[in-house]
From TrEMBL:
This is DNA repair protein RadA. Transmembrane segments: none annotated. Residues 71-224 form the RecA family profile domain. Residues 360-466 are annotated as: Lon-protease-like. It comes from Mycolicibacterium sediminis. Keywords: ATP-binding, DNA damage, DNA repair, DNA-binding, Hydrolase, Metal-binding, Nucleotide-binding, Stress response, Zinc, Zinc-finger. The keyword Zinc applies.
Length: 466
């Protein structure tokens, strides 16, 4: 019989799925992840005295109104698009995780950040575990980001990196990347789950525990998997304060910084950049990047306004309908979800009477934009109809709305911001779902109930502008 004062046995818990086992295993039996099972202390269920015992706090709880918020204010980085996503800038003591595909421009952006940080009179330290200091210097000179207050160190050992921070005393630290850092006090291979968690925990504790008056902000660069997820344990995103995704297509100069988590601001903002040979620059008004500039309207094009986070962006859809040269018609899309476009084609054929079953249909966006918002459904349908009828849409008309399987046009969120952006950019007419009222000055709206009414409105607009 077990005594009431017996010591509780240890347990082993998976950090990915929280599955608990009685002994250590290399692979979790529940989720199948390797290297995520760690020992945790199990609370004794006999007696229960240890679980209910209280400990005197080292510092008492205080009213929230008495806490000075000055230490948690934002310091602008000098890059407007990045500050927009961060909520105003970097906060001393915060840890930001920036993840993205290899070669997307993460190091180029962060070199610009440290250069502007140093230009404003503050010191920055760039720790690289992937490149030598000479390689970083060459890139900095190429993009014009060399400054005496930017310190470089090629280091992959965590303890030595912390020594560099103590010696330089910077207010901003860049760690490129967290997967290349190793801790001699922790077992595991470089970039493994155990090492990544230990390194991130140590860096976060250092940033939070800094006694410097102005604090120290850290930006950690993270690798991503082939699926686009941040490499390493899922708990990595919980340890840091801000998580940013750096996205971009190698065939395009457009780059997007998307906020995923932000403890100091909104997590649904997006920043737009253009990557050039001599650096990276923010695009304050990116709507022009997603439109095809031409002197006259062309059949098969339609313009919409999508919301990326809180930001309204103009997007152009291009469609081409041609007679199929083989027995099976082709359906090709670029920047548009193929299953969504297949649904819209089926609705056009069934509800609007367009015979598209024997035609090749090609759909694309302009500027490498990805239209995942359902509000682009109506523009996609009108672009296909315009191409099938060889009827150009006027350049000053937009279409916003979601297309249902019954052929109905549904309202979408943020309609006020979408219409305001269209009016700001000089659009004169808009085809929108029924029930939308209050158009901004200079923009006339045509409310429609179903896809047939939308196509009729398109013909009216194309013929006589009504």
């Amino acid at each position: 019989m077990t005594r009431s004062g017996s010591k509780a046995r240890s347990q082993f818990r998976c950090s990915e799925c929280s599955h608990v086992t009685a002994k250590w295993v290399g692979r979790c039996a529940d989720c199948g992840t390797w290297g995520t099972v760690n020992e945790v202390a199990a609370l004794s269920t006999i007696g229960g005295a240890g679980a209910r015992r209280s400990v005197a706090p080292t510092s008492p709880a205080v009213p929230i109104s008495s806490i000075d918020p000055g230490r948690t204010r934002h310091f602008p980085t000098g890059i407007g698009e990045l500050d927009r996503v961060l909520g105003g800038g970097l906060v001393p003591g915060s840890v930001t995780l920036l993840a993205g595909d290899p070669g997307v421009g993460k190091s180029t952006l962060l070199l610009d950040v440290v250069h502007r940080w140093a230009t404003s009179g503050r010191r920055a330290l760039y720790l690289s575990g992937e490149e030598s200091a000479g390689q970083i210097r060459l890139r900095a000179e190429r993009i014009g980001c060399s400054h005496d207050e930017v310190y470089l160190a090629a280091e992959s050992d965590l303890q030595t990196a912390l020594g560099h921070i103590d010696a330089v005393q910077p207010s901003l630290v860049i760690v490129d990347s967290v997967q290349t850092m190793t801790s001699s006090e922790t077992d595991g291979v470089t970039g493994g789950v155990t090492q990544v968690r230990a390194v991130t925990t140590a860096l976060t504790a250092y940033a939070k525990g800094s006694t410097r008056p102005d604090g120290v902000a850290m930006i950690l660069v993270g690798h991503v998997t082939k699926d686009g997820a941040i490499a390493g344990p899922r708990s990595l995103e919980h340890l840091v304060d801000v998580v940013l995704h750096f996205e971009g297509d190698r065939s395009s100069t457009l780059r997007l910084v998307r906020g995923v988590k932000n403890r100091f601001g909104g997590a649904d903002e997006v920043g737009c950049f253009q990557l050039h040979d001599n650096g990276i620059e923010g695009v304050a008004d990116p709507s022009g990047l997603f439109r095809d500039q031409r002197p006259a309207p062309v059949a098969g094009t339609a313009v919409t306004v999508t919301l990326d986070g809180k930001r309204p962006l103009i997007g152009e859809v291009q469609a081409l309908v041609a007679k199929a040269t083989t027995g099976i018609p082709r359906r090709a899309t670029s920047g548009i979800d193929s299953s969504r476009s297949a649904m819209i084609l089926a609705v056009l054929e069934k509800r609007a009477g367009f015979p598209l079953g024997s035609s090749d249909v090609y759909l694309s966006t302009v500027g490498g934009m990805k239209l995942n918002d359902p509000s682009a459904d109506l523009a996609i349908a009108m672009a296909i109809a315009s191409a099938a009828q060889d009827l150009p849409m006027p350049a000053d008309a937009i279409a916003i709305g979601e297309v249902g399987l019954a052929g109905d046009i549904r309202r979408v969120t943020g309609m006020d911001r979408r219409l305001a952006e269209a009016a700001r950019l000089g659009f004169k007419r808009a085809v929108v779902p029924a029930g939308v009222t209050g158009a901004p000055p200079g923009l006339r709206i045509k409310a429609v109930d179903d896809l047939g009414g939308a196509l009729h409105a398109m013909r009216q607009i194309a013929h006589n502008g009504r």
